[in-house]
Amino acid sequence: MLDDVDLLVCGAGPVGCVLAERAARVLGWRVLVVDRRSHLGGNCHDAPHESGVLVHRYGPHYFRTRDEGLVRYLSRFTEWIPAKYEVRSLVRGTLYPFPINLTTLETFFGSKLTPESARVLLDREREKIDRPRNSEEYVLSRVGRRLYDAFYRDYTLKQWGRPAADLDPEVCGRIPVRLDRDDRYVDHPFQMMPRAGFTAMFRRMLRHRRIRVLLDQDFREIRHLILPRKATIYAGPIDEYFDHRLGRLPYRSLSFDFRAIAAERVQPCVQINFPGAGPITRSVEIKHITGQVHPMTVLSLERPGDVGEPYYPVPTSASRALYERYRTLAEHETRANRVYFCGRLAQYRYFNTDEVIQEALGCFRLLQQRFATGLDRSYSSRLQPS
Ligand code: FAD
Ligand code: UDP
Fold this sequence. Notes:
By secondary structure, the chain is of the alpha/beta class.
């Protein structure tokens, strides 16, 4: 029995690392972080492939944020390199810039366009749906049926195993549509990569004498053996914490096929999407953005499925309803046993890395308040969007 732990953390992903780091450095707590994987960084983990090429083990991670304060905070643990996240989509044998921009529209419709004429064209194409209720309606209302069928319909079906009509509008709403020639994947003002990689950044966060890390250790096997003096942070799947007693939440998984090639680069950009037939959704050559100089390169081909590691919460109305019932259990657990549920799987939200770090910092502020004032506040209820 370990009796000198103030904070027990399940998960050495972004949430677990940030909360461990803050609790040890700011509050002086003794922290134990456990992860059932053999490495740090959660899904942001990067490591050299056997060829020596640095790869992202769980899909490409493009760091971006609108929050300058967050960049300042992370800069204590890493230097940055500028990065351009450029994606193309292979539609009927032609590579198009994606997200859709002026060049995409010109190539797709075969005519020269200005931002003004493109606006007129899209006005003709789009369907008049005032309040899109799902991802299909969202895309149809922005770009119309022809572009939806070419770029979104089948990619979404492959990615999620269900049609876009079954998914919340925010899923396809992640992708902008542009009337200029901006060919970056996202719009955020800060787009950059940790110079030595994500794992190195998280390793540095955890480098503190009050933090211990136990890898290859399932939280479920030790949770009854350790009673932390202050609190527990749980960043695993919320339904698993409660032994699926209300039923299983759906998650979407991926399998990754890494292929080393004896060439410095083989793709024109970091990511190529395959919205057509075939099981693969995208091919990623991460070397475009890691800054690594190496004579070889590695492609990672992604194939989605329902079985395997839970990578994505599935944003549908049914899964949201089930999650809400788990959230009620979680709130009780927070009040009764000081277990705080934070993270993409613990809050069942399609968070990006910067967003989940903001959540972790918000959770830390609640811990600070609770332990400074003795007030009993529920973390989960206060951080949910209204
Ligand atoms: P995770 O990173 O999932 O970490 C949770 C950790 O908890 C895991 O290591 C897991 O092993 C551990 N764990 C769970 N249960 C237990 C248990 N019972 N016992 C012990 N350990 C346990 N974000 C971006 O900003 N940009 C991107 O381009 C981007 N691309 C992505 C691509 C893919 C394919 C995926 C899946 C995610 C992507 N993300 C991206 C999102 C990013 O990965 C997440 O936001 C972030 O990793 C969530 O951090 P977390 O700490 O909540 O969870
Ligand atoms: N999407 C699509 N076609 C594409 C890329 C994305 O239809 O070429 C849709 C798909 O439903 C996807 C969502 O937009 O799940 C969000 O895409 P993003 O690239 O942000 O997904 P992630 O990187 O999180 O897998």
